Each structure stands twice: as structure tokens, then as C-alpha cells.
Amino acid sequence: MPFAVAGADDEMEKGPRRADPEERRRSSFKQRSGTLFTKARSLAEDFGSHVAVVAFSPTGEPHAFGAPTTESVLRTYLPAAAPPAPTSLSPGGETAGEAGARVARMRRATEETKALVKEELARVAAALGKVKAAQASGGKRNWWEVDVDALGEEDLPGFIAALELLREGVQGRIDALASGRPLLPWKGG
Question: Rounded CA gap, 139 and 158, in Å?
Fold first, then answer.
């Protein structure tokens, strides 16, 4: 059976250029390591976990993420594999003790913030209760018709903020009606 040999004057069809396998590996590593480090950061932030991730690129280059720091996590949890702990990793570095103290400060700050949020929610709920009570006692149909003299001075900033939100919502509805664009259902449409 005869066979044909492609000559120099035969034009070969060229398809889409395929990436070099090494180039594809580098690109895939870059994408996947980014995802891995994002997940590690999320784990550390959401749960206050100590996390260390070290990945080596196809070219052998190390990439690392650690919370509080990669070195402190490795030194704390892999003490046999780590060299004797210096007082500091490098100029400006932090020791495991320093990292632990920083994490403890961050946890305290988080708890203090949670307490402040809880207090603010309670204050807003109390102000809402007073507005609803003033609405009922004044025989008003809408909360914004409440006589402000019936509210305490501490309730006025919240009441003003609520009125401003109402005004913005009404203005948005007026603008939407004037422009003829459809209203979004959650925007008062």
C-alpha cells in the first residue's frame, strides 16, 4: 500500500496553539495554590486556627502562608523538625510567644467587639420598642408619624437614621418611577 509524504508545498492545517505542558503545570499551580492559600486564610480568620501551608512550584520555588506566621506554626507544632528556636526569626520577625500574645490580643478585641455589637443591638431594639409604644399610644398608623417628644434623647439618633433610610427609599422609588425603569422587589417596588 503506497503512502504519501507531505511535501514542502503542502500546507498543513494549524489548529489552536497548545500550551507547553510545563507552562500548563505552572499556570495550574498558580491558580490552585492561590485557592489553597485563600482557604487557609479563611480557616485562620473564621476559626482563629493556627495554619501553615507550604507548597513548592514546579520550578521548585517555595510558596507559604501561615497564621499567625508560617515559622511560628511550624516551630510550635513540629518542634523536632525545627532547629532550636531563636529569639527572633529575622529582624522584624516574631517568636512563637509573640505570635501567641498577638493572637490572644486579637481574640480579646474580637470578644470586645462582639460585646459592643450586642449592646448596640439591644439599644436599637429598645429604641424600636419605644417608637412602637409611642406609635400605639399616639394612635399613629405609621412609625415615622411618632411625636419625637415621646422619645428619649438617647433614642433620637436611631430615629433620625431610620428616617433618613426611609427618605432614601422614597427618593429611590420616585427616581425609578420618573425614569421608567423597573423597580427591584427588595427596594420597595
Answer: 21
Rounded Cα gap, residues 170 and 166, in angstroms = 6
pLDDT at residue 2 in the model: 47
Cis check: omega of the bond before 68, within 30 degrees of 0 = yes
Give the residue from 29, 93, 92 showing the smallest Cα distance to 66.
93
Of residues 111 and 133, which shows the higher confidence score?
A: 111
- Helix or strand (DSSP H, E) at 67: strand 62-67
Contact between residue 38 and residue 63 where contact means Cβ atoms under 8 Å apart: no
DSSP codes of every residue in 99-157: HHHHHHHHHHHHHHHHHHHHHHHHHHHHHHHHHHHHHHHHT-SSGGGS-GGGS-GGGHH
pLDDT at res. 89: 44
Q: What pLDDT digit, counting tens, does each position of 92-128 carry?
A: 567 778 888 888 899 999 999 999 999 988 887 888 8
